[in-house]
Amino acid sequence: TVLFTSPSTVRNMISMVGIDSIKEKSIIAIGPITAEELDKNNIKCSICDEYSINGIIDKLLDLN
């Protein structure tokens, strides 16, 4: 599972490891703005219900 916390982390990770490496993973976006950047790159993701540490933990627990 890879967690993205901002659009810039999405762009930086794509430039570092390539889009195909990211698409192979389970992806979580902290919120809708980050999810929008992932969507622009055709990367599917789950979005945290609450845009906080607790929201991240809850989403991780839901996925596992």
UniProtKB/TrEMBL annotation:
Keyword terms of this UniProt record:
Methyltransferase, Transferase
Has UniProt tagged this entry with the keyword Membrane? no
Q: Name one GO molecular function term.
A: uroporphyrinogen-III synthase activity
What are the residue boundaries of the Tetrapyrrole biosynthesis uroporphyrinogen III synthase domain, all occurrences included?
Answer: 2-57
**Family matches, as InterPro entries:** 4pyrrol_syn_uPrphyn_synt_sf, 4pyrrol_synth_uPrphyn_synth
The cross-references to Pfam families, in alphabetical order and at most eight, read:
HEM4
Instruction: Say if the entry is tagged with keyword Transferase.
Output: yes
Q: What biological process terms from GO does the record include?
A: methylation; tetrapyrrole biosynthetic process
Q: What is this protein called?
A: Uroporphyrinogen III synthase/methyltransferase
Instruction: Identify the species of origin.
Output: Clostridium botulinum CFSAN001627
